[in-house]
Each structure stands twice: as C-alpha cells, then as structure tokens.
Amino acid sequence: METYRVRPTLVHPGEATTAASAWRVRIRVDDRPGTLARIAIRLADLECNILGLSVLPVPGGVLDEIVLRPATGLPRQLLIDAIREEGCECSAVIDADLAELVDPATATLTAAKRAVEEPGGVAEVLRGVLAADVVTKVPSIEANPARTEGGHRAVFPAGDDTAFVARRRWSPFVELELSRAVALIGLIATVRDNVTGPIVLDRPDGAAIVLRKGVPGDAEAVSALHQRCSMTTLFHRYHTGMRAVPRRWLHRLLMPPRGISLLAVCGRDVIGLGQLIPSADGGAAEVSLLVEDSWQRQGIGTALLARLATLATAKGERELTAVCLPGDDSLYRTAARVGLRPERVTGDSGTLRFALPNPRNQSPTCGRDDRK
Which residue spans adopt a coiled-coil conformation according to this UniProt entry (predicted)? Predict the structure, then answer.
C-alpha cells in the first residue's frame, strides 16, 4: 500500500492568523453577473492582491478558487466575514505555494508527463492534481467507492485489481477535479497498454521475429518450444531434470499470477519465453528466460530481457531479480548487454539483482549485434 501525505494549513473561523506568502481561498457563489466583481472589490478593500483564479462549476452555482497575497497582518476571519457579507460561502482558506501558479493546461500536461515518466509515482501525481491531503493505493476490494464522506473522499480504479483512494479534509472534491483525475488515470492506462503491445525485432538477417504477451491460446506452441529444447537448456531454466514441461504448467507459464509472459515468435513457432513476476511483498520482481537451442546466441534472450525491463519499468518496478545455476554466467552477460548492471547477491551465487534505469534516463535497448 502506497500513501502520500501533505499537510495544508486549514483555518476555521476564529483561529489565529499565521504568516503566509499566499492563500488559496475557495468561494461558493451563485452564478450571477457581478458577483465575482463585488468579491474582487472586497479583496481590494482588504489590500489583497489576486494572483490566480479558477472557476469550477458545481451544482447550483460555481466554486471560485482564488490564489491571493494577503495584506500583512490580515486576519483570515476578516477575509471570511467580508466574503460572507456578499452572500457567498467561503469553504476554505489554506496556505498556498506560489509554485502552483501555472495555467491549468500547463499544470495538467506537466502532471501527465511526470506520471508517464514515473509509473510508480502516480499516486503522488494524483495527489497534486487533486490538491488532496492523502492518496492511497489499495486493493480494489478495500476501496469501498460508495463511501464518499460528504465529497471529501473519492475512489479511482487503477487496473490490476487496485484503486486509488483520495481524501481531502479542507474542501470537498468537485466534478471538474474528479474528471481531471479520471482523465489522468486513463492516460496512464493507455500508455501502459501501448507499452505492452507487440514489437518487431530489427534483425540484420531480415527474420520477422515478434515479441508479444502470451495468451492462453499459445499453450500448444509453448509446449512445442519445450519439446524442441534440450534437457540442458530446460535444466538451466527450471533447475530440475525434465524432457518436457508438464501440461498443468502451461497456463501458469502463459498467465503467471500478477505477472506477464513474453513470447518471441517466428512464424507460428514460439522460439523464446520470458516471464516477469512481481514480488508479493513489494520487493524486486523476478524475471526468467527460455530460448530454443537453435536460436540461442542470436540476440533473442537479450531482446526478451530488454523488453521485460521496459515492461517492469512501466509497472513501476525499480529492481529485478533472477535465479540461475551457480557458475552459469549466461544471464549475467545478457543483463550486462541490456545495460542493467547485474550484481550477484552476497551469500547466494545463484541469485542476480539488477536495478532498472530511471525512466528519465536512457532505457535498456537491444543492439543489432547482441547475442544470446
């Protein structure tokens, strides 16, 4: 469960004034000509300088959000009383960060860019978009979307049987804010789905090899892959003597719990199989590779591992782990070619760990001359 917290200064009538460079004020008004002008005159009388204005439609009127620089020593209660004298409701006065003073389009695009670059930080980006006090990522069965807490709580399905739960004490969420959050999450889902789409390898020999996710209908082709592999190749993958994969394993190989299977396909044949399985406790995700003997040392394993690293990064993973036989350095060399900087786990020569690159930096790639 991921939780991100922020502590805006929420001031109720009667509380003492604290020094602040700017305030964020939310005012519920009837949508009638002249109302905003009268409020602006009241603010000018109090020597408040308006720095920014957003108008949020709500049922029965509008919600004006004003960022202003207050006069030195101005009590917040005096500001609230002045707004109420115009027949409007001041629902919140909180300290504001002047860094927030960008136009809505720029703020939204910046948030979307950050969410795409840092998939693991979507909850924090969502907190910023909603100006929420807390955003929590929980299993869908724990989200309880019917519990709205008077508009101060909102739930957004995130896919993969999870959901984001946002809470904000200082002001209820309005429909426009919720729509922005839904659009952001939809964008992330589209990017994620696009990342997991099939790709064609660029090979010097011109062979058409496609990397794509495995589906249940690939069971026979994956079974045939294992039958064409030597016992040595199968032993390096499964660490046990076997001539063919048991039928009961096929569905789990293609549809691992919470994970992804990645196939290398040439024509109708599956010539390679990779898996990415997230850790149940939030630790490093595990990867594994199997490449048909006749296709080894032709860059297939390198391409599979590079693609698995890309998919892991898109899912917010920061580290991968792999189990190999002691003395077998083939996976180590493959990871090094991908650019993952493999390290052997101290005290366990058969386990490798490699940190994933920051999405802002160069992603792992597979060159034309890679071999495995």
Answer: none
